[in-house]
Amino acid sequence: MKPLLNALVLLALIPSLLALKPRLQAERPGPVVLVVDAEAVREEARSQGKSLREVLAAYRALGIEGVAFPERFVKDWVGQGALLYRGGRELLEAGLPAKPGWFYLKGEPWLVSHLATAYDLPAERLGPWLGFPLDVQAFPAFYPLEEIRAAKEAGFFVVVRPINQRYRRLDPSLPIVPPQADAVVFAGLEALGYPHRLEEAKNLVPVPVALIEGTPQPGLSAYWEKGILRLFSLRYEWQLTLTPEEAADKYVLAARERGHQLLYLRPYPYRQDTERFLKRIREGLEASHIPLGQPRVRGFTPSPLRHAAWVGVASGLGLLALGLPIYGPWVAFLLLLLALGYAGSQAGALLAALVFPVLGFLGPRNGLWMWLRTLGYALAGAIFLSALGSTSATVMGLQAFKGVSLTLLVPPLLVALTFLERDFKGALTRLFLHPLRLGEVALAGLALLLLALALLRRGNDAPIVPELELKLRSLLQDVMVRPRFKEVFGHALFPLALLLPWPRWVQNGLLFLAALGVASILNTFSHFHTPLPISSFRVMNGALLGLLLGLLGVMLVRRLRAWWLG
Fold first, then answer.
1. Are strands 209-212 and 228-233 parallel, antiparallel or unpaired?
2. Is 122 exposed, middle or buried, given 0-12, 13-18 or 19+ CB atoms closer than 10 A?
């Protein structure tokens, strides 16, 4: 039965690999556009006595081809002098029949005209004054439309950033998204129209919208049909703590390894630093063969061949059921129920991530052949996972993979189950009666510490990441697609566990920790927003680097053992 199931796994790999072709075509890097925040360069323009357009022309020589216009608040126009803002009591004391408790503004006619119909509020005209019953200083109030027109005429890629506000009127006659816009990046923490007016707001957006990395915006998925562009930006306060080269490298990494198309920039306080910053970005993109230009929407239609991956996943589940020493069919059945109940449409992808890291541990412990077998099963599982889980929504990051944490937790527990004997009651009795030694307790404590460290370090915002590791990460990123340290660690443990004469319980402990690294392979591929080639290079670099370190560790342990034994 096992040879048949293995043959089905191999056969299912062929259509599953072919099913990945549409995603690979959509993930080709670039074109990328460098977008500067208009408000961030406005102070520079004023200090030099120049217009925004003149300053943008100077930035164009440094590679800037896009400009973003955040929507202004009423108070911004007041601060600029385009509007006057007074309380009703002040106007009443000045002899005007204003309403106490109301708020009035006047100024540039085009702006006041738009504001008169901008909000679902009662309004009144008092000569040149426009009054509202609420303080509207923090209400959205459109853009400098002439500057937007000028930027578009100059050939810039124009981005606008509308603000969602419950009182604003979503009227097509209002310039909420000006016709010159090439893309929309929603300002704040939610999409325009969220939560109850998304359908109405969608009609105002005729261009692609941006998904900002690290900034979830509820309601964004409703704009899926408009097209999604991926955007990377650094929080300005953090950017100022970095050198221009360090900040630039993060932008290049985002374009190269995470497929970002809009690089949203803010200049440094000093011109020299900004020039170094932009020069480093251009050089990095050129070295990575990522072109600058008009970004394109990367949608794709999943291939129907992807469903063939279910044959491979089901066969892998069968191999697990037959290979576990105890309760194999029951464990497989419970995994199937867990995947179907928890992941729904992503059940097949989750099953692949939970099952295939374990299959290599079910065979004989025949040295590095076991490592190669385990790696092969894990890569097969990664192909099935990618084929079943890759959709436009998951690849763009709009829909997260359900079960990312489970992919690191369940496989090592299943590997621990493989250590049990068929007469598990007798084995557990012997384990209970085994006399404890201080060395064994120390090794067990070290293993638990390493396990806890691996779990606490999960994710980009892990609470425990040593400073040395951060520096090593940065170094590796400069020379290769950086592997995940859990994978390097796991691969390194295979030679140490299999090529040295350990007691059985020590070998089991090492293999259990190695299982974390193997599970991390599937976890890597479950981050669908990372391009497939990048995940593949990351995994292979981790395997080769880990194997090399493991073999060096074997030589070192053998020499230490020979020295200790005299």
1. parallel
2. exposed
- 487/172 Cα distance (integer angstroms): 52
Q: Identify the pLDDT of residue 479.
A: 47
Beta carbons of 176 and 170 less than 8 angstroms apart = yes
Alpha-carbon span 259 to 396, nearest angstrom: 9
What's the chain's Rg over C-alpha atoms? 30
- Cα–Cα distance, 170 to 200 (Å, whole number): 7
- d(CA 539, CA 536) in angstroms, rounded, equals 5
Order across the sheet with 103-107: list the strands: 83-87, 103-107, 129-132, 124-126
Residue carrying structure tokens 């697609």? 481
Which residue intervals of 390-503 are DSSP H helices? 392-396, 406-418, 424-433, 438-456, 467-479, 485-498
| pLDDT average, residue stretch 149-176 | 95
Beta-bridge mates of residue 186: none
158 forms bridges with which residues in the sheet?
Answer: 67
pLDDT, one tens digit per residue, over 356-401 is: 999 999 989 999 999 999 999 999 999 999 999 998 888 887 788 8
Eight-class DSSP state of 220: G
User: What pLDDT is stored for residue 47 in this prediction?
Assistant: 84
Instruction: Tell me the per-residue pLDDT of 78-92, one tens digit each, with 9 for 90 and over.
Output: 999 999 999 999 999
Top-confidence residue, 474 or 111: 111
Least confident piece of the model among 48-52, 192-196, 544-548:
48-52
262-265/228-233 β-pairing: parallel
3-state secondary structure of 263: strand
pLDDT (0 to 100) of residue 517: 92
Q: Under a CB-based contact definition with an 8 Å cutoff, are residues 188 and 70 in contact?
A: no
